[in-house]
Amino acid sequence: MSHLSSSIGYEIKRIRKEKNMTQAELCKGICSQAEISKVENGKNSPTIDWLQQVAKRLKVPLSMLFEDHLRSDMFTSYDQQLLRLLQSHQFEEACMIIDDIKNKIDYDEIKFLAMYYEIIIHEKRNFRTYLETIGEFKQLLMHTSLQFKSPTLYLRIHMAIAISFIEHEDFDSAENSFQELLRFNYDTIELKKVRIKILYNYAKQLSEQNRNQLGLEITEQGIQESLQIEDGQLLGQLYYQRGYFKKILNRNPSDIQKDFTMAYSLFRTFNLPVHEKILLEKNSSFVLFRI
């Protein structure tokens, strides 16, 4: 389903909840409740006629149902810019964009994004200790509108906390963070994609603790969920991770070969040369063929 369908569904759900209206009340005389649910979760593409009826029932202009699409595009643009600057250690340039967002942008979720990157930059520049950084992340999570307006960012912040604990070998706190994350309600395709990243990072933590059997189970869960939603974003890394766990656990060599070969094929398909290089350096003997 398209990004536009997903964003329209999100906006309908947001306005409906804002008006304390149930799905049954919204759909009466328009369609079934199941249809409303599918649209809100980005699983169906609504027609213009259908949207006009829904907008009338919600007592909002039709254009308002497309507002989230504009916000989402702006969010993605700023996210990509700031991530690129962060990765290249261009902190001053990133801070200029963050200040620009604070002064000129009215959308709360984009302001939250700026605050998220500002916290990361402060730690990268040694302005904060890792515990102070976690404290600031937790303060950001306390904004009541964050989880509703940008659930993906809400989850990213939680994941950043968990990863920070791993990096500083506080595995008990990391475990608690991952368990809290996995209790979240992942009711849209976009959120399910975030959940797959969480499973991948959780399994990485388990490998560092030599909890390899559980790590294998979590990785297999990630693979199955990726296949269910036809998302290949992390599938290569997950197959690599499963091959790694099977190798450590002395599983069937042919199964290990299948996983590493699948990972290699996906790295080639998605043009991930760094991942491909690491795989071939460490596990080339398990790759059945090369492209």
TrEMBL record:
Q: Where are the transmembrane segments?
A: none
- Give the residues annotated as coiled coil: none
| InterPro entries with a match to the protein in the record | Cro/C1-type_HTH, HTH-type_regulator_Rgg, Lambda_DNA-bd_dom_sf, PlcR_TPR, TPR-like_helical_dom_sf
- Which Pfam family name is an example for this entry? RNPP_C
Q: Name one GO molecular function term.
A: DNA binding
**Domain HTH cro/C1-type: residue ranges:** 12-65
Official protein name in the record: HTH cro/C1-type domain-containing protein
